[in-house]
Amino acid sequence: MKARSAYTLMEVILVMAILVVMAAFAFPVVTSMYSNSRLNAASDMIRARWTEVRSRAVEERRAYRFAVKDNSGKFRVAPETAEYWDDAEQSDNPDNDREPLIVEGCLPDRVLFSDSNNTGGAGAEGQEWRKLVTFLPDGTAREDVEITFGTQGSRPLNLKLRAATGCAVSARKSPGEPAG
């Protein structure tokens, strides 16, 4: 009897079925890994931006505002003056030869800002900027801040800023943990 030189159709279908089952088990794990990676990237991006804004506030001796649009990934940085913000109080702005820092940015794909203390409704396109924190010329911030980054398939990630020191710390939120 001669040895066969190919696989039967049944053997090929069996191998394909095993591969499909393995892929079905692996998909949620891979998706969660990428979601966590996007949240960490968003947190790192905002921490770096806060450090830059705090530094500019000290160098230029002027207050800077960091604002977000809730339930979106959009953020904005500009000096805390009426020239850059409609609702800003006119603050002392010493003559400064340096161009002010003005940045509008966006978080990584599918990562959103959601303020754990905000009681407002869902964000709509065209909504106003919500002031999150103001960095003062002495290197501090006006208020302590906690923001939450969210994306589908991952636990939310909190980022807290201490007003007195300007230091930011991030931590994962437990599934049953209350907001705030």
What is the radius of gyration computed over CA atoms, rounded to a whole number of angstroms?
Answer: 24 Å
| CATH fold field value | minor pseudopilin epsh fold
Numbering strands along the chain, what is their spatial order in the largest sheet?
3-2-1-5
| Strands, count | 8
Assign a percent range to the helix content. 25-40%
Q: Mean of the pLDDT scores? A: 82
By CATH, the superfamily comes out as: minor pseudopilin epsh domain
Low-confidence stretches: 117-124
| Second rung of CATH, namely the architecture | 3-Layer(bab) Sandwich
- Count the helices. How many? 1
Taken in chain order, the helices and strands follow as HEEEEEEEE
List the helices and strands and how they pair.
Elements: H1 9-60, E1 64-68, E2 74-79, E3 103-106, E4 112-114, E5 130-135, E6 145-150, E7 157-161, E8 168-172
Antiparallel strand pairs: 1-2, 1-5, 2-3, 4-6, 6-7, 7-8
Essential attributes:
minor pseudopilin epsh fold, 180 residues, alpha+beta, four-stranded antiparallel β-sheet
Verbal overview:
This protein is an alpha+beta fold and 180 residues long. It has 1 helix and 8 strands. It has a 4-stranded antiparallel sheet. A 4-stranded antiparallel sheet has the order 4-6-7-8, with helices on one face. The radius of gyration is 24 Å and the shape is elongated. The termini are far apart.
